[in-house]
Write a structure and sequence with these properties.
This protein has 168 residues and is mainly α. 78% of the residues lie in helices and 0% in strands. Keywords: Membrane, Transmembrane, Transmembrane helix.
Length: 168
Amino acid sequence: MLKKLVSMYVIYVVYFLGIGMTSSGIVLMPFNFIRYSTVLLFGLLLFTAGSYINEFVIDKKQISVSKVLKLIFSSLGLAIGIGMISGGIAHFKEAPIYVSYLIPSGIVISLLSFTVKNEYSLTGKEAIVLIFGSMIISAIIFTGLYHMATNYLESPDAKKGGDIFMNH
């Protein structure tokens, strides 16, 4: 039992560290491209490695080239999408217009990647409802965030550059 506990804990640390690094990398990349692209890359590698270990080492699922590729690409999409959402929420003040695009896009990307990664078999009608429903919800969220972003940028607080870039 101890071996399972430790191995599952390590997988969770790898997953969440991967997501955290992906979030930071995505949202902060415009401020320092090389540094945050590196953080993003390592976050994606960690999340993908965690997915691979969980699926094929711990759960001992059948390995094939197509399954590994599907897992890699869906894990990358899931990490990027969730990173866009969480990084966008955390850093709205630093880049409000950028974030207004990140969060809704992240919802669509992560939902579709989650669907593929977990092999949900949808009927044609269900797939259409999922795709268009997520796009409509994302468009509504984008509209609200973009409106908030433009209002924020016109406020005196915007000149400070957000919490992490405040001039002291």
